Amino acid sequence: MVNGWVDVHAHFTPPLTEEQRLRQWEGLRAQQFLAPQPFSWSPESALDYMDRTGIAMQLLSNTHVFSSQAVRDSNDYGAKIVADHPTRFGLLAAFPTDDPEAALAEIDRAASDLHADGYAVSARYNEVFLGDDRLEPVWAELNRRRAAVFVHPNTIAPPQLGLPVTLMDVGFETARSVVDMLYAGVFRRYPDLTLILAHAGGALPAMSGRLGQLGAEPWVPNPQNITPDEIREHLARLYLDTANAGDDAPLASALATVPRNHLVYGSDTGAPCNTDETLATNIRALRGSRLLVEGEADQLGHRGWDLFLTAGRRAGRG
Predict the structure, then answer these.
(1) Whole-angstrom distance, CA of residue 256 vs CA of residue 259
(2) Alpha-carbon distance 28 to 156, whole Å?
(3) From CA 132, how far away is CA 236, in angstroms rounded?
(4) What is the pLDDT of residues 271-314, one digit of tens each?
(5) Mean pLDDT confidence for 254-265
(6) What is the Rg, in whole angstroms, of the alpha carbon atoms belonging to the chain?
(7) Interatomic CA distance for residues 46 and 77, integer angstroms
(8) pTM, 2 dp
(9) Cα(279)–Cα(227) distance, rounded to whole angstroms?
(10) How open is the CA angle 227-229-233, to the nearest 5 degrees?
């Protein structure tokens, strides 16, 4: 049990028919994700988990949608969940990064009509990574809004080495996309953007030292002339969540990359890769960490309130 934590990394699934759930399950198994049964999510099951665990609020996201209309429909459903349970859920609205015009329209609609608390993007959406030149107006608009944007890797992909991508490759995808943003100069141009990376940034923190040492060498393509100091400074601006990363090994890399106050609690609940036991194991790891000082696990568990102020006000936290 925890005491009123806010979970910045929680997924929701729009309602599915039994036939759709079965097809989804079969598709996962074909990709070597050997789930023993179809996955099911509902607001009621999420609330039950939160009540049993002591989570005050979940910021819900759904980045596994691959058309502009599907994104809109998913955001509409997420907004309805929040409207029905405004003190327990928040919405991180998705937008289609393969279509900048549609992305800008959905960013505006999510803020004005759906009252979203923030945004969520896939590190690779329809094969578009986040440093793509076409996304320049999108990052400019999010920077203007001083938006908080949650980045989650795409988990719908063929297996690698006979293993589902959810096990390891998601971590590399996050690293690739953020490094793409780094060399595109996104962080230099848009300092008011708050980026939260899933799974403690995946492989990125472990690679950060190598990037700092070698990333500005003459043999590295670097059209924006990003300096070694900028590499370190820009990576340090990131926020990292603790989903499946509460053990000391990932925490050590995370704490070597970002300030201690840039760690936030995320669970990855609502995804078929986690169970109540894996979620509890991660919380126990955080609370028993030899790297976090006394009380720091609770501090990072509450830190999301500072990033999502409107959600905090609904929950009576601000």
Answers:
(1) 8
(2) 8
(3) 22
(4) 999 999 999 999 999 999 999 999 999 999 999 999 999 999 99
(5) 98
(6) 19
(7) 15
(8) 0.96
(9) 39
(10) 115
Type of residue numbered 12: F
Structure-block tokens of residue 78: 């997420």
Amino acid at 262: H
pLDDT in tens, 166-178: 999 999 999 999 9
User: Within a 10 A sphere around the Cβ of 80, how many other Cβ atoms?
Assistant: 14
Of 257, 258, 277, 259, give the one whose Cα is nearest residue 267.
277
Return all residues near 133 (Cβ < 8 A) that are at least 6 apart.
184
Residues 6+ apart with CB under 8 A from 175: 201, 202, 203, 204, 207
Cβ-contact 250, 204 below 8 angstroms: no
In angstroms, the Cα distances linking 87 to 48, 78, 83, 114 are: 14, 14, 9, 16
Two structure tokens written together for 4? 């009123």
Task: Say if residue 118 is exposed, middle or buried (CB neighbours under 10 Å; 0-12, 13-18, 19+).
Answer: buried
Which amino acid is located at 179 in the chain? Answer: V
- Length, in residues, of the chain: 318
